[in-house]
UniProtKB/TrEMBL annotation:
GO terms for cellular component: cytoplasm; SCF ubiquitin ligase complex. This is F-box domain-containing protein. It comes from the Eukaryota. Pathway: Protein modification; protein ubiquitination. Residues 30-77 form the F-box domain. Keywords: Ubl conjugation pathway. SMART domains: FBOX. One of its GO terms (biological process) is SCF-dependent proteasomal ubiquitin-dependent protein catabolic process. InterPro entries: F-box-like_dom_sf, F-box_dom.
Length: 153
C-alpha cells in the first residue's frame, strides 16, 4: 500500500489551545498515546480505516508500536476485507498468517473484487478502458464469482 505522508493530524493531539497559538508546535510534543493507557489509545485507533491506520503508524515510534502490536486493530480491518474476500482471508488465517499480514495480502484484492462485483466494469469493451484503474491479481474462483455476478445482472 502506498500512502502519502500528511504529518500528524490535530485530531490526534490532546492539548489545550493557548491564546493566539494554533500550530501543532504550541501543543508541545505530548500526544494522547503518551498520556492515555494503551487500551484507550487502541480504542482511538480503532476508529481509523486501514489506510489511515497505516499512515498513523508512520507518525511516531510510539504510535507505530501500539498499532503494530495490536492484533485487534488488524483483525477489525481484516474482517471488513473478509466480507468481500472470505475464502482468501480464511485461507491465509488457516495458514497461520497474522491479521496484519492477511490484511496486507488481501486489501487491494478486496477493493478490486468489490468494484467488479458491484458492476463498475460491466460496460468495459476492451482492456484500454481499464487503463488507469487499479487492479490486483485475482484467482480463477474469484473470476468465476465475478462472471456469475455479470450473468445475474
Amino acid at each position: 500500500m502506498q500512502h502519502e505522508s500528511a504529518g500528524p493530524s490535530p485530531v490526534f493531539l490532546l492539548c489545550e489551545r493557548q491564546a493566539g497559538l494554533t500550530s501543532l508546535e504550541a501543543c508541545g510534543s505530548q500526544n494522547f498515546a503518551e498520556t492515555l493507557p494503551m487500551e484507550m489509545s487502541v480504542r482511538i485507533f480503532r476508529e481509523l480505516d486501514a489506510e489511515s491506520l497505516c499512515r498513523a503508524s508512520r507518525t511516531c515510534k510510539l504510535w507505530r508500536s501500539i498499532i503494530d502490536d495490536s492484533e485487534q486493530l488488524w483483525r477489525q480491518q481484516c474482517m471488513l476485507v473478509r466480507a468481500v474476500c472470505r475464502r482468501e482471508v480464511d485461507s491465509d488465517r488457516s495458514d497461520g498468517l497474522s491479521w496484519k499480514v492477511t490484511l496486507l495480502r488481501n486489501y487491494s484484492r478486496s477493493r478490486v473484487k468489490a468494484a467488479w462485483l458491484a458492476g463498475r466494469y460491466s460496460g468495459v469493451r476492451s482492456a484500454d478502458e481499464l487503463l488507469g484503474s487499479k487492479m490486483a491479481p485475482l484467482d480463477a474462483e474469484t473470476w468465476g464469482e465475478i462472471l456469475q455476478a455479470e450473468l445475474d445482472r
